[in-house]
Design brief:
By secondary structure, this protein is mainly beta. It is about 10% helix and about 45% strand. β28 and β29 form a beta hairpin.
Length: about 800
C-alpha cells in the first residue's frame, strides 16, 4: 500500500585492448579534466535508502466530511483496509492507518473527535481519534455466519448518548442478526440482543437520542419483500420497547410490498413494492401506520402509464424521497411530511438520470436537504484520435418548494482516465449570495478519488496505486555523447580515440558555463523545453532530461484495476496516467508488464516500449497493450482469443533492441466443435505464443526450444512443462480472387493465421513434464522463484560491511509456502 523507490548500483570494469603505459598517462590527464565537470554520484551509505515514499489509500468505500467547515477534512475508509483523513482543499494525506489483513471498511461514522469503523464484513469495530488518527481501541464483533460475511446479513453503526455513566458516548452496532451496545470508553460490550425474526435481514440502525429514554431502532426486510421488521431496543439494557415489530401486510400494496427499502431520518421507512406498477409504502417507525401510493403519483412527467421505480443510494440524516425511473431516464425528488398519523410525499423536482449516474442526498449547514446527481459523459476530441475525454455533469437539487436545480459542468474531469462515477459524497455549502456551492468527493471506476468544487477539479487521489501488481524501471534516455568513441570496439587506433575523447571533454568545458546559466534560468522561471522524443508534452511539466549515470528513471507501475502509471524516481511525482479500459473494453484487470525495449537506436531515440498483459473481465480473455513508458502513449492494443495462463520475458533480443515475451494460452475453440468437445480438448497441451509475433522471433525461439521450461501454480500444487515447435499444417482455401491461400489447420491467437507457403512460421506447444501435488487441505499461499527479469545478473549483492548477500541458493530452485486447513491440530 506504499510506493517506495530506493537505489542500488553495480560497477563493471574491463581493460582496454592495446593500452600502453604512455597511453595510460594520457588517459590519466583526460580523467583529471573530466573531474572538473559536474557529475552525479552515490555514496555507499545511500544504497538501499528510500528516495521517496508515497502512501496510498485504495478505492474509497465509505466517507464523511467533517461538519466543521473550518477544519477542511474528509474522512475515508477504503477497500484495502485504510482509514485516513484528507485535506479538502489540497488532498494532502493528514494521517492514515491500516487495518490488518486488508479488511474492507464497510461503515464509517463520525461524532465529535471520534471515528467509528466497521470492517471485515462487519466483524471488527474500531474507534479512532479524528485529530491524530490514533487507534483508541478495537474489538471483534462475533463470528462470520456460515457461507458469507456479516455485511450480507446487515452491518451498521450509530452513536448513542452515554448509557454506562462514564461520560463518553457509546456505540450501537448491527452485526449480522444481532445488535450490541459497546462502551465508547473501553470497547467493552455492554449488551447483545439477537433481534432478527424469521428470515429478516437487518440493514439500518437509528439512534433515538431525542426521547426521554435513549433507544435504538433496527430496521430490515425479508429477501422476498413480504416481511418488514421495525424493532426498538432500550439503550440501557437492550430490552424491546413497544414498536411495530414484524409487518407482513400493508393495505393497498402487493404481497411483495418491500423489495427495496430505505429509512428516512424524519421517522419513516420507505418501501418499494413489486408489481405491474411500483408502489411506495411509508411506514411510521413508532406506530407502524402505513400510507401506500403508486410511484406514478410522484413521477412528474413519467406519470403516464404504469411505471417501474427503484430507490437510489442516500446520505444519512435525510427525510426526502427519491425514485429512479430507468425506462424514462429520470429521477424524481419528493418532500416527505407527516400528516396526522401517516407520512405523505409531495413531488418537488425531476432530473435526468441514467444507469451511469449516481444520486446521493446531503444537507447544508442550515439543514436544507439537497440531492446531488453526478455522471460522467463522453466528449469525442478529434485531435485525440477519437478517444473519449472528460466531462462531469452534476445537478444540485434542493428539496424545498420554489427552489431550482443548479447545473455544474466540470470539463477538467477526464472520463478517459477516471471512467464512470461509482459513488459521490456531496458537501454543499451556502455562498454569500445565498445560492448553493458544489463541493463533492467523486469515487470513480478506476479507484480514483476526485474532489470537485464548483466547475473545477481541486485534486485527484490515485487509489489504484494501493493495488500495484507489477512494476519496472526505465532509464530516461540521454543522447549518445560525442566522447563515447573511446569505448567503441571498432578496431581503430586507440590513440585517435583518446584524442577525440579529449576534444569532446574540452568542448564540454567551454560549454559548461553557458549550459549552467540556462539551467539556472530554467529553474528560476520553471520554463522547460519540449524534448524531441516527447509526443505528449510530459517534458514540459517534469524534468525528463536523462543523466549519463542512470539515476533518473521512470517507474512504470501496473495496478489491478487496469490503471498504468509513470512515476519519476527523483521526485515521486506521477508523470503520466493511462486507463487501459476504453469504450470497447470497459472493464479490464492488470496482470503483468514487461520492458520489451529499454533502449533505442539514434534514429528512433526515445521510442521505448513496455508490454502490458491484462484480462478482459467481461469474457476472461487475455489482452495486450504496447505503451511508451516515457510518455504513456499507447502504440498498440490486441485482444487475444484465449485466456492467458502464463507469461515471461525470454532471453531473446531482436532488431531495434526489442525483447521477446512468451505467452502460454489455452487452446482456442474451433468453429466446427461444440462447447463440450472444446472443454474436453482444451485441457491437453497449451498453445505457446511469442510477442512480437515475427519470423525472426520464431527462428530464435526454435533455436532455444530445448532449454525452455516453465511451471504453472495451482491451488494445491505445481505442474512443469516443456515446449516444442513444429511447422503448422496449412489448410488450402481458394480466395475471392482465385488465388490459393494457406491457413492454419487450427486457428489460434497467432496473428499469422493467413500465411504464405514456405514461411518460417512455427507453432509452439507446451507439454506437461512433471507435477507436484500436495495433500488435500494443503494450499499454496506463496511462491518465490528466481526472477528472470532482474537487471543485474549476479548471484549476490555486496553489502556495506563487504559481506555478500546471496540472492538464491540455486537459480533453478523455487520456494513454496503452503497452508494446511481442516486437519487435526
Amino acid at each position: 500500500f506504499e510506493t517506495r523507490v530506493g537505489r542500488s548500483f553495480g560497477c563493471i570494469s574491463q581493460p582496454l585492448e592495446g593500452m600502453t603505459s604512455g597511453m595510460a598517462r594520457v588517459l590519466a590527464a583526460v580523467v583529471l579534466l573530466a573531474v572538473l565537470l559536474p557529475v552525479s554520484s552515490l555514496f555507499e551509505d545511500q544504497v538501499g535508502v528510500n528516495d521517496f515514499i508515497v502512501k496510498n489509500i485504495g478505492g474509497i468505500t465509505a466517507s464523511v466530511f467533517h461538519p466543521d467547515t473550518q477544519k477542511r477534512r474528509v474522512l475515508v475508509g477504503t477497500e484495502v483496509g485504510a482509514v485516513a483523513s484528507l485535506d479538502v482543499k489540497t488532498g494532502e494525506l493528514l494521517w492514515r492507518q491500516m487495518l490488518g489483513g486488508e479488511e474492507r471498511v464497510d461503515v464509517l461514522r463520525l461524532l465529535g473527535n471520534q471515528v467509528a469503523t466497521l470492517s471485515g464484513g462487519g466483524r471488527r469495530l474500531s474507534l479512532w481519534d479524528e485529530r491524530s488518527g490514533s487507534l483508541l481501541w478495537d474489538r471483534m464483533m462475533g463470528s462470520v455466519p456460515e457461507g458469507g460475511s456479516m455485511a450480507a446479513a446487515g452491518a451498521d453503526v450509530a452513536f448513542l448518548p452515554d448509557q454506562n455513566n462514564d461520560s463518553i458516548d457509546d456505540i450501537a452496532v448491527l452485526h449480522g442478526s444481532d445488535v450490541s451496545l459497546v462502551s465508547g470508553d473501553s470497547g467493552e460490550v455492554l449488551w447483545t440482543v439477537a433481534a432478527a425474526k424469521g428470515d429478516v435481514v437487518f440493514s439500518t440502525l437509528v439512534a433515538n437520542d431525542g426521547m426521554a429514554q435513549s433507544s435504538i431502532t433496527v430496521v430490515g426486510a425479508s429477501p422476498t419483500g413480504t416481511l418488514v421488521q421495525i424493532t426498538t431496543l432500550a439503550g440501557l439494557d437492550g430490552s424491546e420497547i413497544k414498536s411495530p415489530g414484524v409487518v407482513s401486510r400493508v393495505s393497498g400494496a402487493a404481497r411483495e410490498f418491500c423489495t427495496e427499502h430505505t429509512v428516512l431520518s424524519a421517522g419513516a421507512m420507505a418501501c418499494l413494492g413489486k408489481g405491474t406498477s411500483s408502489t411506495v409504502s411509508l411506514l411510521d417507525l413508532k406506530s407502524g401506520a402505513a400510507h401506500t401510493f403508486n410511484a406514478g403519483d410522484v413521477a412528474g412527467s413519467a406519470a403516464a402509464g404504469n411505471v417501474k421505480a427503484s430507490l437510489p443510494a442516500r446520505g444519512g440524516g435525510i427525510s426526502s424521497l427519491a425514485l429512479v425511473f430507468e425506462a424514462k431516464k429520470l429521477a424524481t425528488l419528493s418532500e416527505v411530511k407527516k400528516e396526522g398519523e401517516v407520512w405523505r410525499a409531495s413531488f418537488r423536482h425531476e432530473v435526468p438520470f441514467s444507469p451511469d449516474h449516481r444520486l446521493v442526498a446531503s444537507q447544508d449547514k442550515n439543514g436544507v436537504e439537497l440531492w446531488t446527481v453526478a455522471g460522467a459523459e463522453e466528449i469525442v476530441d478529434e485531435e485525440a484520435y477519437g478517444e473519449p475525454e472528460g466531462l462531469l455533469k452534476v445537478f444540485l437539487v434542493p428539496v424545498t418548494p420554489g427552489s431550482s436545480p443548479q447545473k455544474f459542468s466540470i470539463t477538467s474531469y477526464s472520463r478517459r482516465l477516471n471512467g464512470q462515477v461509482v459513488d459521490v459524497q456531496p458537501c454543499p455549502y451556502v455562498r454569500k449570495d445565498g445560492t448553493h456551492g458544489l463541493r463533492a468527493l467523486v469515487v470513480t471506476a478506476t479507484k480514483a478519488a476526485v474532489m470537485v468544487q464548483q466547475e473545477f477539479v481541486s485534486w485527484h487521489n490515485d487509489g489504484a496505486l494501493a493495488e500495484v501488481v507489477a512494476a519496472s524501471f526505465v532509464d530516461i534516455p540521454v543522447l549518445p555523447p560525442a566522447h563515447d568513441e573511446m569505448f567503441q570496439r571498432t578496431g581503430g587506433n586507440p590513440f585517435t580515440q583518446l584524442v577525440r575523447r579529449l576534444a569532446a571533454d574540452v568542448t564540454d568545458l567551454v560549454q559548461a558555463p553557458v549550459q549552467l546559466g540556462k539551467r539556472l534560468q530554467a529553474k528560476g522561471t520553471e520554463r522547460r523545453e519540449r524534448l524531441k522524443w516527447d509526443s505528449e508534452g510530459v517534458s514540459l511539466r517534469h524534468d525528463m532530461e536523462g543523466d549519463r549515470f542512470g539515476f533518473k528513471k521512470v517507474a512504470v507501475a501496473l495496478t489491478a484495476p487496469g490503471m498504468l502509471y509513470g512515476i519519476h524516481t527523483a521526485t515521486g511525482q506521477i508523470i503520466w496516467r493511462r486507463n487501459l479500459a476504453d469504450t470497447m473494453t470497459p472493464s479490464v484487470e492488470g496482470i503483468k508488464l514487461f520492458v520489451t525495449r529499454e533502449t533505442s537506436a539514434p534514429a528512433s531515440f526515445g521510442m521505448l516500449e513496455v508490454l502490458v498483459l491484462g484480462r478482459n473481465t467481461e469474457n476472461d480473455l487475455g489482452m495486450l497493450w504496447w505503451i511508451n513508458p516515457l510518455t504513456g502513449l499507447q502504440t498498440g492494443k490486441q485482444q487475444l482469443k484465449q485466456r492467458c495462463l502464463h507469461a515471461t520475458l525470454m532471453p531473446i533480443v531482436l532488431e531495434e533492441h526489442t525483447k521477446v515475451v512468451m505467452l502460454v494460452l489455452e487452446r482456442a475453440q474451433r468453429e466446427d466443435e461444440t462447447d463440450e468437445q472444446y472443454e474436453e480438448r482444451k485441457h491437453g497441451d497449451f498453445e505457446v505464443r511469442v510477442i512480437p509475433d515475427l519470423m525472426e522471433a520464431h527462428r530464435m525461439m526454435e533455436k532455444r526450444i530445448k532449454s525452455i521450461f516453465f511451471y504453472l501454480v495451482d491451488r494445491n500444487g505445481l505442474t512443469g512443462f516443456t515446449v516444442s515447435a513444429k511447422k503448422p499444417d496449412p489448410k488450402v482455401i481458394i480466395g475471392e480472387d482465385g488465388e490459393l491461400e494457406y491457413f492454419r489447420d487450427e486457428i489460434g491467437s497467432n496473428q499469422y493465421d493467413n500465411m504464405q507457403e514456405g514461411d518460417d512460421v512455427r507453432e509452439f506447444w507446451a507439454h506437461e513434464a512433471w507435477s507436484v501435488v500436495f495433500p488435500e487441505g494443503e494450499d499454496v499461499v506463496g511462491i518465490a522463484p528466481h526472477s528472470a527479469e532482474e537487471s543485474i545478473k549476479a548471484a549476490g549483492r555486496v553489502l556495506g560491511n563487504r559481506a555478500v548477500l546471496l540472492k538464491y541458493i540455486n537459480v533453478n530452485l523455487v520456494a513454496i509456502a503452503t497452508e494446511t486447513s481442516g486437519g487435526a491440530g
